[in-house]
From TrEMBL:
Keyword terms: Membrane, Transmembrane, Transmembrane helix
Species, as recorded: Spirosoma endbachense
Name the UniProt record assigns to this protein: Bile acid:sodium symporter family protein
Record-annotated membrane-spanning stretches: 6-23, 30-50, 65-83, 95-118, 124-146, 153-172, 192-212, 219-238, 250-268, 280-302, 308-329
Subcellular location: Membrane
Membrane-topology annotation of the record: Multi-pass membrane protein
InterPro entries (UniProt xref): BilAc:Na_symport/Acr3, Bilac:Na_transpt, Na+/solute_symporter_sf
Length: 416
């Protein structure tokens, strides 16, 4: 149909075929985990064939949904964790330091090399560097669990790479990509605090009150730390000429401290602190959120993707797979065991593409810089699933040393 001039109509067969495939793979346990990735492909196909449908509904620009959806996903990540997860750095400091160092050295450098070597427009090439400079995401923890790797190490590296991202991401981006397009360092710091850190703070507080598993002293210390983060974020906003210090601080306290505390307390009273209920809800919200984000970005950048799509896909594939390869062998070279090396491989190769998309939106370059994160996200989940299942079926040389479960997360939570 496409060859004889009915390309638009042929699109519905592509979309329908992918949709049937998404439901079909669920019948096979070995491939059921790929169903969500195929659904992402359905959304991408729809956005490529009918981009006008997915940019504006009744005068409302759908790209305005991206930041709130990212904040919900980050809240979910925080609500599945507690401060105990950060204690992992005391138990395995070498693994954590190697993981964070590899993450923030290998991926930014690979991104820079690909952006400079491949003939891509500067704004699109910057998206590759932006992905490389972003922290690792929750997906890497899930892959580490499936691969029977060192899950506590994975969680700790994710947590600390995220905490460092307000400073390292804009600094690295300005250093490596400043020549491509201008980068406002302090504005990006503020955006990362708003998109990532504050929602995670809200999730951690929700966790403390929803499951009532922490002492009053611990909760009190957290409140002081989180209040300091909110004050810092609003101080930076004033320095960049945005908003009012008092108004912004009170607004953030209400949304990111008061609401999660009240919500966590109500959840505990109503559900008795049952984690499985929240797991299912947050899992569904995360899947819907990621699908909407990828769809909107693809629709906004459809014209650019038609011009550089295959080249950008190749760049993202190389970025992702080289991250796995170099992350794993760096760990083996410095003496980390098999399971820890697997975890760090996922931490290096898998990025928080959602946060990168949000930053591209805030920079006003969703249809260009935002394309690389939109491609990298589904691609890394596909490759990560395949690598995790392959490793799961291969025995590690020291598996028994490193199969401790997460400090506060259950396998069921990770699977969701």
């Amino acid at each position: 149909m496409a060859i004889v001039g009915y390309g638009a109509s042929a699109g519905w067969f592509v979309i329908g075929g992918l949709l049937l495939l998404a439901f079909g793979v669920r019948r096979f346990p070995a491939y059921a985990g790929l169903s969500f990735t195929v659904l992402i492909s359905v959304a991408v196909a729809l956005a490529m064939y009918h981009p006008d449908w997915l940019q504006n509904w009744g005068g409302f620009e759908l790209k305005k949904l991206i930041i709130p959806l990212l904040q919900i996903i980050m809240f979910g990540m925080g609500s599945q964790s507690s401060l105990d997860d950060f204690a992992g750095i005391l138990k395995n400091p070498k693994g954590v330091l190697v993981g964070i160092g590899s993450h923030y050295i290998i991926m930014p450098l690979i991104g820079y090399l690909l952006a400079t070597l491949l003939p891509l427009p500067p704004a699109i090439a910057m998206g590759i560097v932006l992905v490389g400079c972003s922290p690792s995401g929750l997906a890497s923890n899930v892959m580490a669990f499936i691969a029977r790797a060192n899950v506590p190490l994975s969680i700790t590296v994710t947590a600390f790479s995220t905490l460092l991202s307000p400073f390292l991401t804009p600094a690295l981006l300005k250093l490596l990509a400043g020549q491509l397009v201008p980068v406002d360092f302090w504005k990006m710091v503020m955006e990362i605090l708003n998109i990532t850190i504050l929602p995670i703070v809200a999730g951690l507080l929700f966790n403390a009150f929803a499951y009532a598993n922490q002492t009053r002293r611990s909760v009190g210390i957290q409140l002081v730390i989180y209040l300091a983060i909110i004050v810092l974020k609003n101080y930076l906003a004033i320095q960049t000429g945005e908003g009012s210090m008092l108004e912004g601080t009170l607004w953030n306290i209400g949304w990111f401290l008061v609401v999660p505390i009240v919500g966590g307390w109500l959840f505990h009273r109503i559900s008795g602190g049952r984690r499985d209920i929240l797991d299912r809800v947050l899992s569904m919200l995360s899947m819907v959120g990621i699908t909407v984000i990828v769809t909107v970005i693809t629709a906004a950048g459809q014209k650019s993707l038609l011009d550089v799509g295959l080249l950008l896909l190749l760049a993202c594939f190389l970025h992702n797979t080289l991250g796995y390869l170099l992350g794993y062998w760096t760990c083996r070279a410095v003496g980390l065991n098999e399971q820890s090396s697997r975890s760090v491989a996922f931490e290096v190769g898998m990025q928080n593409a959602g946060m990168a998309s949000g930053l591209a939106l805030q920079m006003g370059q969703l249809a260009t810089t935002g394309l690389a994160p939109a491609i990298f996200g589904p691609l890394m989940n596909t490759s990560g699933s395949m690598l995790a299942n392959w490793w799961r079926n291969r025995s590690g040389d020291d598996r028994e040393e490193n199969l401790a479960q997460p400090l506060s997360q259950t396998p069921k939570a990770l699977e969701s």
